Design the sequence.
């Protein structure tokens, strides 16, 4: 267990149990003064929680208790007791498991420890896609999506969709079957469990992405979410294009999500892209605006 003091923020590496008891590596960020909000940051596919450390610290500085964590089979939730990375061949996990077992448990963990504080949800890419699948998404009062979208390959910009289609089907899928897991060096980021990668590819090849997966028992939960929802669309992001973001938001029939398009020029940047929102250079621009909305009331 690692404890760190970051200016006015206390950060502690902890372990939280998933719904089936699987240990998830997490980091809890706390302000020096009593917290006024609880915030859960939910990762993109193949993205370790360390990417969100700066933004989590910033939200804690604003008076929030913030939790980041790694889904099973990724980041710190892949290591053994000795601290070594666990082999992923034969590791059983799917994206549905990430939602049903990991994210659901993280929401409950924060809800149980936040007393009467409002619970806010930040979802990056898959982290945003998963909110609608959660049986307990009614615990969330306000959600901020960052580059969260229907990931159908034909909704990506220009040649990016064709590159992704060829890379996944021509390289990723054969390698995954051969190795028993999806290697990060194939261009996907982190290593991924076989079941996660293959379900992700199935969704990416489907026009309505996860909405086309009849095996997802959580799909009816999209209608249960009635909190506030703001989706940020970064205009230079080749994956989460405006039509792709709009299609995800259309999956929430009980609310009218707010979609904001942000260009790099709007914040004095040359580029932002799919994950650039979380770079510290955006502390006084993107982060400030996001925090003001997320932590309002």
Sequence:
């Amino acid at each position: 267990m690692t404890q760190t003091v970051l200016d006015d923020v206390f950060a502690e590496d902890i372990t939280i149990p998933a719904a089936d008891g699987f240990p998830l590596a997490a980091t809890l960020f706390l302000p020096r003064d009593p917290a006024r909000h609880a915030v859960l940051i939910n990762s993109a596919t193949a993205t370790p929680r360390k990417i969100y450390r700066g933004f989590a610290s910033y939200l804690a500085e604003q008076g929030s208790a913030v939790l980041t964590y790694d889904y099973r089979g990724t980041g710190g939730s892949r290591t053994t007791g000795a601290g070594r990375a666990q082999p992923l061949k034969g590791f059983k996990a799917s994206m549905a498991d990430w939602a049903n077992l990991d994210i659901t448990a993280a929401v409950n963990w924060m809800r149980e420890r936040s007393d009467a504080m409002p619970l806010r949800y930040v979802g990056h890419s898959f982290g945003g896609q998963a909110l609608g699948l959660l049986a307990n998404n009614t615990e969330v009062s306000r959600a901020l999506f960052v580059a969260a979208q229907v990931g159908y390959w034909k909704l990506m910009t220009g040649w990016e969709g064709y590159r992704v289609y060829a890379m996944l089907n021509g390289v990723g899928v054969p390698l995954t079957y051969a190795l028993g897991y999806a290697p990060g060096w194939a261009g996907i980021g982190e290593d991924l469990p076989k079941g996660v990668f293959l379900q992700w590819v199935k969704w990416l090849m489907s026009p309505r992405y996860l909405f086309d997966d009849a095996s997802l028992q959580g799909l009816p939960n999209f209608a249960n979410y009635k909190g506030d929802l703001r989706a940020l669309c970064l205009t230079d992001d080749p994956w989460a294009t405006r039509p792709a973001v709009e299609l995800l938001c259309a999956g929430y029939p009980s609310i009218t999500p707010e979609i904001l398009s942000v260009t790099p020029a709007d914040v004095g940047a040359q580029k932002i892209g799919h994950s650039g929102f979380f770079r510290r250079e955006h502390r006084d621009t993107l982060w400030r605006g996001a925090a003001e909305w997320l932590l309002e009331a």
About this structure: The mean pLDDT is 95. The helical segments are 53-61, 95-113, 126-129, 160-179, 194-204, 242-249, 283-294. DSSP finds seven helices and eleven strands in the chain.
